[in-house]
TrEMBL record:
Signal peptide: none annotated. Pathway: Amino-acid degradation; 4-aminobutanoate degradation. Belongs to the class-III pyridoxal-phosphate-dependent aminotransferase family. InterPro entries: Aminotrans_3, Aminotrans_3_PPA_site, Class-III_PLP-dep_AT, PyrdxlP-dep_Trfase, PyrdxlP-dep_Trfase_major, PyrdxlP-dep_Trfase_small. It catalyses: 4-aminobutanoate + 2-oxoglutarate = succinate semialdehyde + L-glutamate; (S)-3-amino-2-methylpropanoate + 2-oxoglutarate = 2-methyl-3-oxopropanoate + L-glutamate. This is (S)-3-amino-2-methylpropionate transaminase. Its EC number is 2.6.1.19, 2.6.1.22. SUPFAM superfamilies: PLP-dependent transferases.
Amino acid sequence: MNDIIKGLEVIQKDDELISLGTRIAFYPLAIKEAKGAILMDYDGNEIIDFLSAACVSNVGHSHPRVVNAIIEQTKKFIHYNPAYAVHEQMGNLAEELIRITPGDFPKRVAFSLSGGDANDNAIKVARSYTKRTKVISYFRAYHGTTYGALSLSAVSLPMRRDLGPFVPDVYHIPYPDCYRCNRKSPDSGCNMDCMEKLKELFNTVVPAEEVAAIFLEPFQGDSGVIEPPAEYIEELVKVCKDNGILLVVDEVQSGFGRTGKWFASEHYNLEPDIIVLGKSIASGMPLAALVARKEILEGWGAPAGSYSTAGNPICCAAALATIDIIEEEGLVKKAEELGNYTIKRFEEMKEKHPLIGDIRGKGLMIGVDLVKDRGTKERAKDETAKVSYRCWEKGLFITFFSGNVLRIAPPLTISKKELDKALDIIEEALCDVEAGRVPDEILESVKGW
Ligand SMILES: Cc1ncc(COP(=O)(O)O)c(C=O)c1O
């Protein structure tokens, strides 16, 4: 069968058979192969990946060392339920995760399968350790779609509508969003009103001594790469310490070198009580983990944190290879350097393109906020969909969140040449949209989220 027809069939079958709760509406892409930062479709097109499977493929697609680690472990054995027997890959990986995560104190690790269930584990263990039930999260947070993670999340109504009741005792507060802060006083600048909201919650609805944990994304990812100010994080740490509240930091998206540090927490010298890991940990193999202060993960009994296929040795082998690659190829530093370069290129574009309102992020976790007007900061939603679509037509796979924030998240292994090509495509797309050369019809299919 002709490959082009095969590609259409793959898409059609998916459209007909796969649940609509799983796919976000962007473009009809069926991937035949993927290597490094390049996706190949059935038409033979090579497309630059600016999404990394949503930060799952930090070391690039099908890195030969990851592939080899998977093959070698598969030949030995595929899996044994870790509730009943141990294997060396899981212990070795735990040792490595303890080494690379922030916090020079004794730790333990709990493995699971996805960022969502790892967040559920964090709720469970925080409650059982503190003997408190209440949990605080942020508006516009994304922590996954298992029930606990869904209850923590507050990014969009499809994650809420008709799905309740949710896990009880979860409260949301505003995330410190400095670009869209409407609480800044014109005279005194930032008055940390977002921190006041937390204190108001404690004084009115949720006694601090009943709170088990606060769940924080160190950069809020899916709401559009929001970076909190350092003063906020400092104060949050203090509030948690003063009130015996555990600070759970979700590094599922921001971890594994993505932000130009091993973990985004390091930008704030943050040493979380519990760190949630997933996505790039095993380069796309299903694996997630909590790394926590030792005593916290000693606070619950089996099988409260057990999953039959967690800590799969093939996934652990892929994760160990991923860590080696990040270290040996210097990908943390590379993410920092390419990130600085990318931000500089966008700053230059901003001078020519009024659509660009704000450029945020660190390393290769960058959000470019497109606005109708720099004064009002009104989100340029149609324009963003059109820019992304035009990029797609020109061979760049780029998505957006919050309707108007371009998501810049290529694999950390992307070459300078590929990066430059992608940035040139974005600039051409901005010109095309500003000149009205992208038709409105595309808005019916490119909806994003
Ligand atoms: C910060 C964060 N936490 C958790 C998750 C959920 O991970 P998973 O999709 O593996 O359940 C995501 C996924 O986008 C995420 O960005």
